Amino acid sequence: MKADNNCIVIFGASGDLTYRKLIPALYHLYKIGRLAESFSVLGVARSELSDDSFRQKMREALIDLEGASGEILDKFCNHLYYQAINTSDVVDYAKLLPRLDELHDKYGTGGNTLYYLSTPPSLYGVIPECLSAHGLTTEEFGWKRIIVEKPFGYDIETAKALDIQIHKYFEEHQIYRIDHYLGKETVQNLLVLRFSNGLFEPLWNRNFIDYVEITGAESLGVEERGGYYDGSGAMRDMFQNHLLQVLAMVAMEPPAIINANSMRDEVAKVLHSLHPLHKEDLKNNLVLGQYSAGSIEGKPVKGYLEEKGVPAESNTETYMAVRCQIDNWRWAGVPFYVRSGKRMPTRVTEVVIHFKTTPHPVFSQNAPDNKLIIRIQPDEGISMRFGLKKPGAGFEAKEVSMDFRYADLASPSLLTAYERLLLDAMKGDATLFARTDAVHACWNFVQPILDYKAERGRVYEYEAGTWGPAEANKLIAKHGKLWRKPSGQMKKKV
Fold first, then answer.
1. pLDDT tens for residues 52-110?
2. HSE (CB half, 13 Å, CA atoms) of 381?
3. How many CB atoms lie within 10 A of CB 168?
4. Could you give the CA distance from residue 19 to residue 183 in angstroms, rounded to a whole number?
5. For residue 250, what are the contacts with CB-CB under 8 A and spacing of at least 6?
6. In what order do the strands lie in the sheet with 319-324?
7. Average per-residue pLDDT in the chain?
8. In terms of DSSP H, where are the helices of 327-400?
9. Distance (Å, rounded) from C-alpha 222 to C-alpha 111?
10. What SS3 state is found at 422?
11. Of residues 216, 248, 217, the one with CA closest to residue 324
12. Which of 2, 248, 336, 373 is at 20 to 30 A from 327, Cα to Cα?
């Protein structure tokens, strides 16, 4: 299904996200015929650029990142336009009126407009107010939608304040809070795996599942984002949005029907059911860490405190591990172990469902546990681990696997996360976008952790290239569990 005819207005169009992600995503959608036949892209930023210079800059990005060339590239770039304004000055937004009228008339887009805020968070409330002041949010002529990038607030209070500010000018059905993790094919496949297979859904509960493990690991450090990251940390950067959303997709109940409202209702229910972590809980169920100098793949890397833009005395966490519980019928008593860190041995995001062992190990005291591994990135796929007889005499059980990898498909046609989410926003499908109540539920769960960390003021050190501080192993080992140590490829033993 194609997107509606529309004009896509990208605020912050001279920035890195537009160059690396948004324009390549729109180009690929155009190339495979998923964009509307009539569309335009208007880049908006402070930098003084002409239409031609903006097109040339984006052309270079597409050649460099996508290997684009030929007639398709030329035709796509002809749909790109640019308008320089001071995005903090309400008066300057008057320049958008004639440009948008011109583009809607030229392409017959009927006033349909998608605003994308690829800007610093300080402008998330300013831009909607300025657009409204010039009548650019009204849906009298065509729909108006706004995509807001994370972070959506810095804590529960700022998240609520930002919601109030945006809702003055846009209704909830117009607001699309983007989390690119939810655009990943394997995250969505969680739902299909569970709800379309009679094999898995009967087992997806406290009676058969021992514990759930969610890992979001990166081998990179903070790179050139030290100043930004130091004010964020792993709890805000990964856990509060990405990993809690993945947890909700794993744990949610079957929706009555597959549409945005039903799906997001079930996600919100899970997030509201998270067992609150009070100060005493956090002493035993939370580990925070910060990487020191080490090596990854044989190459030496700096410690966090040596990174550009990071204060010498910073205690910002680059690693977090937490034990969560969900207070509902399905999951009562099943722990969810969630961890995320920078400078890990490899880049990998995955969910592991650890099933309960057999009540009586007939063949071997060391029989392998059953595991379902859902690899979100990289090398997206699913692996089922179970025991079979080891060749030879006796009945010793050995772990074997049944694997599926998207890369093995004859003609994989996967959309990237940004491609999928941009397309959904243009179609008006909010299923994979966060709703206000879900955002607040995430912050309500995370806020006590942030408060505890601010009061406690200590993070554990771990060497770059390892799987985090030793205390994280103790966190899970004291309950008789183990963290997995995955590799980056599903073909290897992960």
1. 999 999 999 899 888 888 888 999 999 999 999 999 999 999 999 999 999 999 999 99
2. 20
3. 12
4. 19
5. 190, 212, 214, 336, 351, 353
6. 397-405, 381-389, 371-377, 348-355, 209-217, 336-341, 319-324, 286-292, 460-463
7. 89
8. none
9. 41
10. helix
11. 248
12. 373
Distance (Å) of CA 393 to CA 301, 389, 396: 48, 10, 8
Q: List alpha helices for 134-259, DSSP H.
A: 156-167, 185-195, 226-230, 233-234, 244-251
Q: Considering the candidates 28, 79, 104, 242, report the single residue annotated as catalytic.
A: 242
Residue 360 burial by Cβ neighbours in a 10 Å radius (0-12, 13-18, 19+): exposed
What is the residue type of 36?
A: A
Q: Is the pLDDT of residue 146 over 90?
A: yes
Look at residue 494 and tell me whether its pLDDT is greater than 50: no
Q: What totals of helices (H) and strands (E) does the chain contain, helices first?
A: 16, 17
**pLDDT confidence of 493, banded at 50, 70, 90?**
very low
b/e map 439-478, b = 16+ CB within 10 Å: bbbbbebbbbbbebbeeeeebeebebbbbbbeebbebbee
Select from 295, 315, 407, 238 the least CA-distant residue to 304.
315
What phi and psi values does residue 291 have, to the nearest 5 degrees? Answer: -75, 140
